[in-house]
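Entry 14. Structure prediction run on the chain below.
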Amino acid sequence: MKITFSSVNVQSFTDWEDRKPNIIDYVKQTDPDVVLFQEVTFLPQINAENQVSILNKSLGYLYENSAVTRLQASTEFENYREGLGLISKYPILKSETFILKQQSHDEHQRIVQLVDILCDEKVVKFANVHFSISDRDESLPREHLHELLQVLESRGETRIIGGDFNMNEIDLNADLWHDTYVSSSVTPYITYPSMNKRIDYFLLPKEYSFISITTSGDGLSDHRALTVVAEEGALVQTPVQELSYQSA
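Output returned:
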């Protein structure tokens, strides 16, 4: 079984009307089976729907799930809700959201979105993540990944883990995952161009292999989207391609 999936940090409603067509064009161009979204917000002063619902009106995926459960402070608006979302061509069998532990110096209360999808009679399990980062403590995303992996191990399961890890170099934390997972870091790419680094990844359980790993061009958000084609079998390392397109 081969499956294509993407991760897109939609950057809330910042410059939304300019960026929205670029995200739609990119997803239509790459045509993934599943798309994970981060920084999804419900901000009724701007729109009564979150970005996942707005985008999917144009994309037309049959299945959609949002976990917009974090209450965030705003200097411009009243408190608003922020979280994660997902669209899928295949049926969503089960979804769950759990809250990660919050360190005393972390201003964010992070969540993980767990979704089980039925792809060609096989259940494929995803974990959509957006970990914290702090100038004072670079261990925050490591602690979040460690907690997630412990939870999955205690349940006796592995998942395709993807999203905004906020780790400049995930391989520095390979001791947490290398026995069970392989990382999209097998090939070089940039997903946060303003700082010339990558902070978005996919971790695949070792029964899967990477067939291709590609990034979008700029203009979707402050992140580039990350798209993976994977299948069951031996690891294949494919050079990354920077996809380009004309902005709408």
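Residues 33 and 138 are 33 Å apart (CA to CA).
Filed with the rest of this week's runs.
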